[in-house]
Amino acid sequence: MRPETEAELAETIKAASGPLRLRGGGTRAVGRSTGEVLETGGLSGIVLYEPGALTLVARAGTPLAEIEAALEAEGQRLPFEPMDHRGLLGTTGAPTVGGMAAANASGPRRVQAGACRDYMLGVRFVDGAGQILRNGGRVMKNVTGYDLVKLMAGSWGTLGVLTEVAFKVLPKPEAVASVLLDGLTQEAAPDAMARALGSPFDISGAAHLPEGPEGTPLTLLRVEGFAESVAYRAERLRDLFAGSAVRIETDPKRNAALWRDIRDVAPFHTRAGDVWRISCKPSDGPELAARLGAEATLFDWGGGLIWALLPEGSDARARLGTFGGHATRVRGEGESPVFQPEPAPVAALSRGLRARFDPRGVLNPGLMA
Which domain of life is it from (predicted)? Predict the structure, then answer.
């Protein structure tokens, strides 16, 4: 099923007699869901773009590439650097606006700019009863009552089918530089990233590769902005780590490639095994990585996000034990739930929300169970 209008989508959901499996571009095949496929690709196109107001509104099935091209023409971008899952999951198709918002897809810049949900100004969606709902608008601080915009971000289509999303966008920076620290151990890297993030130099990315492009550990710190400011901050960061092996990369294309590989977890693309995504306190990262005993790891968000490659069928949560964070199986199969089981009070709230927005349980049933 591929509705072409919001009204047609609402009627399709209202008439559904069984489960519906939602699909945008088909690139983020995470988790388990069953039912007849309901595609949102027919709801496509940029509804409104006002560069001067830093606002863009697009239908949910709009390819992300179309959004990025329109923004690029005006020297602007989506600040939250959404991840492209295709290489990691081996999927095809094109990422869409709705899928990005439903997954709250956010990249390395989250440590500075925030997540996808922080730039969503408004949404339109159809709930499980076939009702068309809208919340928010086209400016910041526009929500009265329940903030359904934030609720829809990261709900993976289990509360409603997005039809339209309004975003705040930002100008692209004039320059970018990456300060590269060679040879730091997995234990030392989080401290280095914390020092950089705690400095006054406005870091827009902090990541660590235990096996960098040259096969040796590499820690990356990114600064963006006006050219003179970027040059000054990069040098000050070099001074901050005096005594370490420090290089500065200023070439825009090489910088883009470095951070795209981190964003999309490129080192795992051609390697077999299950991929887990662990969100934790950055200071806990080294200990948790040791518990995992992973075949490969990648640290992002200053060490607060660990990507781990484990043998097929592995349960990262069993290896981690009790810890303050969340573990999600992004690639692979297993008996354990894909998403981190919620504490009982939170699980009760989630059930209540799903009962309210999808009383028949037809939207991606079981996906987040």
Answer: Bacteria
